[in-house]
Amino acid sequence: MKPFSISESSPPAQIWNSAPQLDNIPVISIQSLVPEGARAVVIAPHPGDEVAIGGGLLQLLSNLGHPLQLISMTDGSASHPGSRQWSEKRLSVFRPQESVEALRRLGLPLHSLKWIRGGFSDSCLAERELQLVQFLLRYLRPGDVVFSTWCEDGNDDHDAVGRAGAKAAAMVGATFNEVPVWAWHWPKRDQSQFPWHRARKIRLDTWTVARKSHATHAYASQLNGEPGMGIAPMMPKVLLERMRLPYEIVFV
């Protein structure tokens, strides 16, 4: 599928706010998704994806005392090619700091959170898929419950990390769950391409949603584009609006 660009001019009829299947997705409890004592691992292609993948899920797991492992594959420094305000050098420092602040806003225990940075260059992860698998094999363990981006999300980096995560999890005997991120913003006409039979809904209470929404605003470099340079916001208003939904959805 041709990637769907998330922009301020995107039409309102996107999958996340118009697909009738959303109302019929079965609800799954955290206890069913992540067994007691199991370690949960979130693999984020770029800084900010950890909240988009499971800002609510991370809060619920932390409250239940599950050990958490966060793996950030890139530092996100190539998100603004040609930008005068956000050079790659500046973003390589700034974006990881934004992630720290976002996780603090989620209320996660940063002193005990296991956090691995992959150091891969973003925007070219599909070319290094084998290396991604080899890297992940160092950190995944049998019995882990892993969450990462859907392998058909519509973004090359997201797709590659989803494929690599699935391969590595299968090789070590971990459970792998996919999470659509960009795909929610495909046009309504593409909703038939979703694997709805695999979708499960995790309900979030008001405060969990509020903390998640607050966390997304920690990514200051992603909130405003540079119109003069033709650079759109990486986190446009329509994505921020979706972050306020009272649930998250995973493909099991």
UniProtKB/TrEMBL annotation:
* Domain of life from the UniProt record: Bacteria
Q: Which Pfam families match?
A: PIG-L
Which SUPFAM superfamilies does the protein's record reference? LmbE-like
Q: Which Gene3D superfamilies match?
A: LmbE-like
- Name listed for the protein in its UniProt record: PIG-L family deacetylase
User: Where does this protein come from, organism-wise?
Assistant: Pseudomonas fungipugnans
